[in-house]
Design goal:
With 424 residues, the chain is of the alpha/beta class. The protein contains 9 helices and 27 strands. A hairpin with a 6-residue loop joins β14 and β15.
Length: 424
């Protein structure tokens, strides 16, 4: 078994992994390696051929592959090493990465610091408890996206989509453009899980109905999907008897949520948030395991890839400093926990040390419901230090607030930070 040493090893070469690796190199890390299980870098962006990426990062509208290509070029220019077609099996407490590939077999790689950037996966049908057989024609929206955009295959002609996440909304438009008929998009919640722009551009513009507070309660067909039954649900998300309606179809696409890919994180002993199901991190995106950092959708599911790149850049820089034995590695920490209350589901990061943070730190979060005319407030103990008014907040859109280091250092006896929604 061969062993190699690197300053920083990044697990995953999607948008988060590439940005973290580039940042680590720019921050002075000597040897930086990104390990990717696929045959090419770029991650999920390679199959996202629609536009809308890069408006924040590059100030222009790009497709997913175009956005990924720019970071691939930057990684090559920065001297980032790539290891493709390679599966990571284990991360030890001493930051030794065990991986395997067809070309090189089993290999161990010792790292000064590790960045977790494995992305997320889709929630499958098995998590939904939908009665019926297991016929052909049921796909996750991401699988259907790959079939259409990469493989050039059309999964079906008469389609029903369950879940209004962004991938499901985008696939409603994509399937329509490819000649299929999308009967409807059913959503369990009383609000959509996707961005407003995707609801307008992917459903409204094509006359595709969005059925809020509805879910699939039965799948017909043994060899192939023949129809699905959709029922209205009550405030407890339980189907209401007598509201069932049958939709003939040959394809059911599921867009019912994304789950951070954290099997490696869990086996490495990283503490996970019960809300995001990703690692709990501090202001440097360092996990509970010293020298192990996390960024991107493995940390929490993002709405915009530009935010992924921003967080990954910070994580890569911090990893390089740790590997070099800098302040992030050696300083004794005084963590202030960040609490989410009053309609705020979670925050990332979950702890802050004012003495170690940069001049400003961005807290990102999602809300638990649709709220109108609210004020986003940040308290240090009982003193409000940030307040901004928002006309509407929705779960499908990530929110953020910026904290200044000087504001926190001015309160040396603080015990906690709280982010909450208040009446405007």
């Amino acid at each position: 078994m061969s062993t190699t040493d690197y300053d920083v090893v990044v697990i995953g070469a999607g948008p988060a992994g590439l940005a973290a690796a580039i940042s680590a190199r720019k921050a002075g890390a000597g040897r930086v390696l990104a390990i990717e299980r696929d045959s090419k870098p770029g991650g999920i962006l390679n199959q996202c051929i629609h536009n809308g990426f890069g408006l924040i990062t590059f100030k222009e509208e790009l497709t997913g592959p175009e956005y990924a290509a720019r970071f691939e070029d930057q990684a090559a220019e920065a001297g980032v090493e790539l290891l493709l077609n390679t599966m990571v099996l284990d991360i030890s407490g001493q930051r030794v990465v065990t991986c395997v590939s067809e070309s090189e077999g089993l290999r161990q790689i010792s790292a000064g610091a590790i960045v977790l950037a494995m992305g997320c996966r889709e929630r499958p049908r098995g998590a939904l408890n939908i009665p019926g057989f297991r016929p052909a024609g049921i796909y996750t929206a991401g699988t259907a996206q790959r079939l259409v955009n990469i493989e050039g295959l059309l999964p079906g002609r008469e389609v029903v989509i369950l879940g209004s996440g962004d991938i499901g909304l985008i696939m409603a438009r994509r399937m329509t453009l490819e000649g299929a008929h999308v009967a409807c998009v059913a959503e369990l919640m009383p609000y959509s899980g996707g961005l407003k722009r995707n609801i307008v551009q992917c459903l409204d513009d094509f006359g595709i109905p969005l059925l809020l507070s509805h879910t699939v309660t039965r799948v017909e067909g043994q060899k192939r999907v023949e129809a699905v039954w959709i029922s209205e649900v009550d405030e407890h998300r339980r189907p209401i008897p007598g509201t069932e309606k049958r939709y003939p179809c040959d394809t059911l696409l599921l867009s019912v949520g994304l789950i951070p890919e954290n099997e490696l994180s869990r086996s490495a002993g990283v503490e996970l948030s019960p809300v995001t199901h990703g690692p709990s991190v501090n202001e440097h995106f360092e996990t509970s395991v010293p020298g192990v950092f996390a960024c991107g959708n493995v940390l929490h599911v993002h709405d915009l890839v530009d935010y992924v790149s921003q967080e990954a850049t910070s994580a890569g820089k911090a990893a390089a400093e740790w590997a070099a034995g800098g302040s992030a590695a050696d300083a004794a920490r005084h963590n202030l926990p960040v609490f989410a209350e009053g309609g705020v589901r979670y925050t990332v990061p979950q702890t802050l040390d004012p003495s170690l943070m940069d001049s400003e730190t961005t807290l990102r979060f999602r809300v638990s419901d649709v709220f109108e005319d609210r004020r986003i407030s940040v308290y240090v103990d009982d003193e409000r230090i940030v307040s901004k008014r928002r006309p509407i907040l929705v779960p499908g859109q990530m929110e953020q607030v910026t904290l200044k280091r000087e504001d926190l250092l001015a309160r040396p006896n603080a015990s906690k930070i709280t982010v909450k929604l208040e009446e405007a």
